[in-house]
Request: fold
Amino acid sequence: MKPIPSPSRSPSLFAVCAAFAAVYLIWGSTYLAIRIGVKTLPPFLLGGSRFSFAGPVLMAVAALFGASWPTVRQWRAAAITGGLMLVGGNGLVVLAEREVPSSITALIIATTPVWFALGDWVRPGGQRPSRRAWIGIALGMTGVAYLSFSRTGDKGSLAISLPGLALLVAATISWAAGSLLVKHLEKPASPWMMSGAQMSCGGVFLLILAAIHGEFNQWRPETVATDGWISLGYLVVFGSWIGFSAYVWLLKVSSPSRVSTYAYVNPVVAVFLGWLLLGEELSLHTVVSAAVLLTGVAIVVWPNRSIASRPLSKSA
Reply:
């Protein structure tokens, strides 16, 4: 997928709508692809294969368009932020999706703007959340808490894995920390080159974790189902290349507040696809939790442009 160059004139309405559709639908569907992939592919191996392939190819394409290769200091920044965002963020998401439905995963990841607001406050010289933002933070956390107490069955067994839920919360914190930190580290001028370097580093780290975790000894290519290979290819081509390119282009041609709406559109897409294609339960409890959680996220995102302008909640 070639990076879309910055246009010299206003883009067409069709191009803008197509890019928004890619960010809304494709990124929303990556949770479903991960859920399918981890059924027959080990989690760290799935993430490591995805990013260690997608990253170098994206860097090569960016270089063909004139982007400079990262310096040593820029590689160091890519390693730090790539580790936080793609190992701590995406890696924990993949690990959690062995037990947590894709729809619930997307809802928890949607709370990442809450951690952006809190992280931006606790850093040196940070900005304290407004009173309205605190209301949004409280609502978001209430939605997560209510979701975690979802019960089903006559014996009241937990419908959601609490360890899996904890992994997802840790993933959102790690993604937010990496995204906040990248603003203060030296990085290439080309966002595609920087993203490719982050993917490359994150992919290598995930493959190392896969080796430590013994995943290379626990699987054989012939044991991977066809839909597992398809999901891996989908994550590389559509999730890492097309979706990201559309997102970066939209940041250049549209307002940050509009682009940031994917933070709470993606979960809606993921919930619908999980229900439609995987038969994941869409209970009243989940709907109420989603409504409270996403309302809180919307309140946090919209009032403050400095928060809305950041990559908010993409951990998949």
Notes: The chain has one domain: 13-308. The longest helix spans residues 226-253. The beta strands are 151-152, 157-158.
